[in-house]
TrEMBL record:
GO terms for biological process: thiamine biosynthetic process. This is Bifunctional hydroxymethylpyrimidine kinase/phosphomethylpyrimidine kinase. Its EC number is 2.7.1.49, 2.7.4.7. GO terms for molecular function: ATP binding; hydroxymethylpyrimidine kinase activity; phosphomethylpyrimidine kinase activity. Residues 20-261 form the Pyridoxamine kinase/Phosphomethylpyrimidine kinase domain. Residues 279-439 form the Thiamine-phosphate synthase ThiN domain. Keywords: ATP-binding, Kinase, Nucleotide-binding, Transferase. Pfam families: Phos_pyr_kin, ThiN. SUPFAM superfamilies: AraD/HMP-PK domain-like, Ribokinase-like. The gene is thiD. One of its GO terms (cellular component) is cytosol. InterPro entries: Aldolase_II/adducin_N_sf, HMP/HMP-P_kinase_dom, PM/HMP-P_kinase-1, Ribokinase-like, ThiN.
Length: 448
């Protein structure tokens, strides 16, 4: 039988950059990010590098005629919606792209000068050539070191970054995103400057050296969002959010620090159905037991986070919790993402210290339950009784409970406060394990 085709027509993004044989940066990072973001990636390779997670061992620049031919071939056949540049290496290549910039829509210029490993990727004499390309950019995305080279201005804080961004806009760029990853501080502050506004994007610094490909991934993500019709502010915000997650859940590959996880959002989205089904399986397994001793008056909450969850709406939970009925314990409704925001925030806070923790179940706190939870095979921590404030946020409770503890907890005991019922939150990295731990506590309570 002959089947009828059903083609799709994603927006097209062109990346003009160098090849990274290690796959973490350059053309490879760009194409992974573009495809993961819902666009079709095309490329014009400027140079071929021999590199991996430990550094650059060599590079070969392609002739400018060959680079021009690649750009021309893509532009003649594809309706390109956005373009990004990466490693251009020499003034001749920069000038070639600048000369064609009027025909390159939504041009995102990532002025790649030095690799994350410290290896130089731009000839020193080519730095001045960037001024003409910056003038054609919809947005230029230098890190602090690159912005210092382009503007001659020292950058030690967000105010310096804003001033450098204004210099770049004065050169002709529609906007400048000066990235703060190379500026010291517990937080990373990226600064977006346009003709009429200065905006900042602040996020926590991730304790890792696995940032190979971070600049390429961010600029490719921004170009992809612009190609999909986002305005600049939304495109930058989405790109920064993606990069923050890609750095936290980095790829442990190679002998060096590793690379950012270019497809992290796509993979997390793909895991939503599996996570929802896992939460359903936890609820089904638990309701086969006589749960009455462990079900809180408000019901037993059951939740599970996607593998790379960062927000409460990425945590699935039993809607309405498991409650006691005449027919025994039953979930009130099905599983829904965002159904238990307080428990979701609690679980996400635990994941800050132990990202492998994905599932949580709340149990009634009683003397028997507190004794029973101590039988679990792993650390059980307690929010300090007497210091627990009724208005404490889930994040504050977790921080207080985990203070001084290095190992991942299997349960957290919250003694409650005036007007706030106490509870035991059982935690695990898998659905089967969290069921096993709750059943262990239940058996100990029943036998006690």
């Amino acid at each position: 039988m002959q089947r009828t085709e059903s083609p799709v027509a994603p927006p097209v993004v062109l990346t003009i950059a160098g090849s990274d044989s290690g796959g973490g940066a350059g053309i490879q990072a760009d194409l992974k990010t573009i495809e993961a973001g819902g666009a079709f990636g095309t490329s014009a390779i400027t140079s071929v590098t021999a590199q991996n997670t430990t550094g650059v061992q060599g590079s070969h620049l392609l002739p400018t005629d060959d680079i021009a031919a690649q750009i021309r071939a893509v532009r003649e056949d594809f309706d390109v919606a956005a373009v990004k540049t990466g490693m251009l290496a020499t003034s001749e290549v920069i000038e070639l792209v600048a000369e064609r910039a009027a025909d390159l829509p939504n041009l995102v210029v990532d002025p790649v000068m030095v690799a994350t490993s410290g290896d130089r990727l731009l000839a020193a004499e080519a730095e001045d050539a960037y001024e003409a390309l910056v003038a054609e950019a919809a947005v230029v995305t230098p890190n602090a070191d690159e912005a210092e080279v382009l503007t001659g201005r020292a950058i030690d804080d967000p105010e310096d970054a804003a001033a450098a961004g204004q210099d770049l806009v004065a050169m002709g760029a529609d906007a400048a995103l000066v990235k703060g990853g190379h500026v010291a501080g517990d937080d990373i502050v990226d600064v977006l400057v346009t003709d009429d506004a200065v905006g900042t994007y602040r996020h926590d610094r991730v304790d890792t050296d696995a940032t190979h490909g971070s600049g390429c991934t961010l600029s490719a993500a921004i170009a992809t969002r612009l190609a999909r019709g986002d305005d600049l502010g939304d495109a930058v915000a989405r790109g920064i959010d993606l990069l923050a997650r890609a750095v936290r859940y980095n790829l442990d590959v190679g002998e060096g620090p590793g690379a950012v996880h270019h497809t992290v959002e796509l993979r997390d989205t793909a895991a939503r159905e599996e996570t929802s089904e896992a939460v359903e399986s936890v609820a089904a397994a638990l309701t086969e037991n006589k749960l009455a001793p462990l079900v809180p008056e408000s019901g037993m909450a059951v939740a599970g986070a996607t593998p790379h969850a960062e927000r409460p709406d990425e945590v699935a939970a039993v809607d309405g919790r498991i409650t006691l009925t005449m027919a025994g314990p039953r979930p009130n409704h099905g599983v829904r993402f965002g159904a238990e925001p307080e428990l979701a925030r609690f679980l996400l806070a635990v994941r800050e210290a132990e990202p492998s923790s994905r599932f949580a179940v709340t149990c009634r706190l009683s003397d028997d339950a507190e004794s029973a939870v101590a039988t679990l095979d792993g650390p059980v921590v307690t929010v300090a009784d007497g210091e627990r404030e009724a208005e404490a946020t889930p994040e504050a409770l977790v921080e207080q409970a985990l203070d001084g503890h290095d190992d991942a907890p299997v349960a957290i005991v919250d003694p409650g406060a005036v007007g706030v019922a106490g509870q035991v939150v059982v935690l695990a990295d898998g659905a089967a394990t969290v069921v096993e731990r709750v059943e262990t506590v239940l058996n100990a309570v029943q036998q006690g």
